[in-house]
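Q: My labmate handed me this sequence with no annotations at all. I'd like to see what the chain might look like in three dimensions before we decide whether it's worth expressing. Could you predict it?
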Amino acid sequence: MNDEDAIREYLHMPVDGIVTDKPDVAVRERARIENERGSAARLRDNLHDFTVF
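A: Here is what I predict for the chain of 53 residues:
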């Protein structure tokens, strides 16, 4: 997967890995997600998990 929006979306899902030609995007977004683990980020993740089947 090489679409940046899809990479961001999958990083919020319980997946085992992401195969991409843009590892820099995946690493950057993963770091951003880990750094913003305040209550707003957790709420967003929980809402996302609740609405995606």
